[in-house]
Amino acid sequence: MVEQIHVMILFGGGGHCKSVLEILQLNGERVDRIYDGNPQNTDIFGVPVFTDQGHPEGGTAIISIGDNASRRVIALRYSLHYTTAVHPDASLSVHAELGAGSVVLAGARISPAVRIGRHCIINSGAVIEHDCTVGDFVHVSPNATLSGAVTIGEGTKIGIGACVLAGITVGKWVKVAAGSVVKQDVPDYAVLEDKHTEKK
User: Could you report how far apart the first and last alpha carbons of the chain are, in Å?
Assistant: First the structure.
């Protein structure tokens, strides 16, 4: 009988990779290799970095890339077992759902009855209140807040310190500017550049 060897892989060797790698190491996980399309380093925190070419064989993976669209490209390219990473200083309700490949960074707080999709980033200090639904490939930036019963569509980025008020729906692939206060529903593909996004 051949012994099965657990292999942990990260895709992307930039700044977000360092955060994901630290979370895994703090949780006692061993990361075996990092793949990057244009590696700037031969290793990160002692883990070797390889050029992202070919198809990695087997293993468990996280896509450690900050850009939402790039995470989606990698997820579609490689059919691997994707796991999650939750920083030990984050708060994740036992009654919340966290999709495969998603990462929760230090100080983030996720309340009960929250559903977070696949390959999301819930960044440092972000708050997601009760009954929110967050689609796949979303990035909730540092110190951003989703009030209760908010819905966020696939691929959307909620900027640093932004606030989405209770019951609001933000469409897919939306960009919400840092510091915005979102007081009305937002359609798909919108770019909110104004700090205060409300009807005049």
Answer: 69
Query: Is the Cα torsion angle 136, 112, 22, 28 positive or negative in sign?
Result: negative
DSSP state of 184: S
pLDDT in tens, the chain (200 residues): 333 446 899 999 999 999 999 999 999 999 999 999 888 889 999 999 998 665 566 789 999 999 999 999 999 988 889 999 999 999 999 999 999 999 999 999 999 999 999 999 999 999 999 999 999 999 999 999 999 999 999 999 999 999 999 999 999 999 999 999 999 999 999 999 865 445 44
| Residue 132 near residue 148, CB atoms below 8 Å | yes
Phi–psi pair at 153, nearest 5 degrees: -75, 170
Return all residues near 28 (Cβ < 8 A) that are at least 6 apart: none
- Pick the catalytic residue from 55, 130, 139, 196: 130
Question: Residues in the chain, how many?
Answer: 200
Domains, the chain:
8-82 (3.40.50.20), 86-190 (2.160.10.10)
SS3 assignment, position 47: strand
The reply to whether 130 belongs to the active site is yes
